[in-house]
Amino acid sequence: MTQETAHPTGSRLVLPRYRRDDVDAHPPLLSPGYGSTVLRAPRQPLTYLPQRLTEVTGPLLGEGRLGEFDHDLTRQHGGEPQGQRIIVHGRVLDGDGRPVPHTLVEIWQANAAGRYRHATDTWPAPLDPYFEGVGRVLTDDRGHYRFVTIQPGAYPWRNHDNAWRPAHIHFSLFGRAFTQRLVTQMYFPGDPLFFQDPIFNSVRDPEARERMIARYDHATTVPEWALAYEFDIVLRGRESTPFEDGDDDE
Amino acid sequence: MSERLGLTPAQTVGPYLHIGLRWPDGPYVVPQGTPGAFWIRGRIVDGAGQPVVDALVESWQADPDGRFDHPDDPRGARPASVPGFRGFGRSETDAAGEYALLTVKPGPLPTPDGGTEAPHLTLSVFARGLLHRLVTRIYFPDEPAANAADTVLAGVDADRRDTLLATPAPDGLRFDIRLQGDHETVFFAV
């Protein structure tokens, strides 16, 4: 078979290499200001895992997972949800700025009143019969995604006295390989609740925190219909190899 | 060499992860009824030994021939030999902290240095209280020779290696995950 003879037994298996995860970009697992980390963060140091075939591949989940209105959270339940309609769009890129095309982006969020449609969210804010708060899209050829949703509200939680989560949208990204898997949260510019939020502030580098904040994007607003925010997401890039591009000056 | 663009930081999935990440077919790496399919079940517990009821486990693995239907496998992408094989599983934990994945055993894999990796699944664990995913691997109890030759297992402290070994169970295998404390599961930096 041709695919076997292309790599006959004994030939060297050359795998792509992703850069090791940037520990300074991510929050420390043990961040005591966020109380739930205290009994859940491992206490042993992480063990080095070489990137092998299982890690440099990953699920490439396609169109079959998407419903007709999965990109538009305002049209999923037979009526218009309450709240400020917004467009949230951006690109999924790797650390070299290369687009990640055709990759699944999943989001979930609270409604305009800051209430999640979830059995364990019981604070006294109204549910909205027309809002579930879940969306899915695939990025296009250029790594671009676009959702229509409503501005989520802030909500209280019991982490510390009078604790409130800043408004946010949860994002789940697959990228192209297991190494690139990322779950994060998108925040809104100028939120007055940032100062007291231990989840946002668990990211210690102020510049890295800024990368979780969407940009207000007036050019993408739709007159008399919706405001817009742009949120680019950067996943880990690859190390260049001696076999790539003749790019041997690094 | 560092990234040219700063990475987007990770954040927790939070307690309402089920809204966005629940898939009805999530636990099925292979369709129900697949010959040879078995369940991998396990419980996730915290540092106090309490079940973690708001977690999510994702698995990724080769097919039984040790192949991936993925363009970055230098041997060539190849559709799985098992019909309906997705390679990927996703299971939230229930009120007892239990997850479950229906799968088939992956084949061994070649390594860049000419060796062989023992059959394994790679897992991501997400939960409220986890600010970044945790990565671990499941190895098989009926592969003592392959496990003994596996260089990833060899790189793990000998007295913690058994945390990566599944154990036999009535309908497949059991793989508990201890986030913290006694017999803490080995988690990897990848």
Automatic annotation (TrEMBL), chain A:
GO BP terms: namely: 3,4-dihydroxybenzoate catabolic process
* Record's keyword annotation contains Oxidoreductase: yes
Q: Which InterPro entries does this chain map to?
A: Intradiol_dOase_C, Intradiol_dOase_core, Intradiol_RC_Dioxygenase, PCDO_beta_N, Protocat_dOase_b
The catalytic activity of this protein is classed by the Enzyme Commission as 1.13.11.3
Q: Which organism is it from?
A: Micromonospora costi
Q: Which GO terms describe its molecular function?
A: ferric iron binding; protocatechuate 3,4-dioxygenase activity
Segments forming domain Intradiol ring-cleavage dioxygenases: 88-116
Q: Which Pfam families match?
A: Dioxygenase_C, PCDO_beta_N
Task: Report the sequence similarity comment from the record.
Answer: Belongs to the intradiol ring-cleavage dioxygenase family.
User: In its UniProt entry, what is this protein called?
Assistant: Protocatechuate 3,4-dioxygenase subunit beta
Look up keyword Oxidoreductase and say if it applies.
yes
Entry keywords, A to Z: Dioxygenase, Oxidoreductase
* Residues of the signal peptide: none
TrEMBL record, chain B:
Keywords of this entry: Dioxygenase, Oxidoreductase
User: Record keywords: Oxidoreductase included?
Assistant: yes
EC primary class: oxidoreductase
Which residues lie in Basic and acidic residues bias regions?
A: 64-76
**Do you know which CDD domains this protein is assigned to?**
3_4-PCD_alpha
Region: Disordered; residue ranges are 62-86
* Transmembrane parts of this sequence: none
Q: Which residues form the Intradiol ring-cleavage dioxygenases domain?
A: 38-180
Pfam families, A to Z = Dioxygenase_C (PF00775)
EC no. given is: 1.13.11.3
Q: Which domain of life is it from?
A: Bacteria
Keyword Calcium included in the entry's annotation: no
Q: MF terms per GO, please?
A: ferric iron binding; protocatechuate 3,4-dioxygenase activity
Gene3D superfamilies found in the cross-reference section:
Aromatic compound dioxygenase
Indicate the family of this protein: Belongs to the intradiol ring-cleavage dioxygenase family.
Descriptive protein name: Protocatechuate 3,4-dioxygenase subunit alpha
Organism listed in the record: Micromonospora costi
* Underlying gene: pcaG
